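Sample intake sheet
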Amino acid sequence: MSVALFPLILIMILFLIVPVIGLIVLQVYLSKMEKDWPGLILPGLFFATSLIVSVILLFLVPDDGTVILRVLFMFVMGNSPAIVFFIIYKSVHKKQIPTKELDKMTIHDLS
């Protein structure tokens, strides 16, 4: 590998990793909110995008006998970020519920 390609590869990796880390941090932040729906925004967006792309692929790809298999594969692979973000939501939001109940019990004991 040429030495001149090394900075280019580092820049490409940086442009791939930084948005992914940013989305994960955003998902954790949204999942920690008190209401339920903000944590479901990113999984919902990725699911809707995957569904739209699969439907478009279904109608635009010529039928050669394997189009359903390709669309199903695209739908499953497109939903992998949605599944990851939903797992993050469930794991972070589940930790918030006992704390909220404990706060309610403490307030009730003080009154």
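Comment: The mean pLDDT is 86. The CA atoms of residues 85 and 100 lie 22 Å apart.
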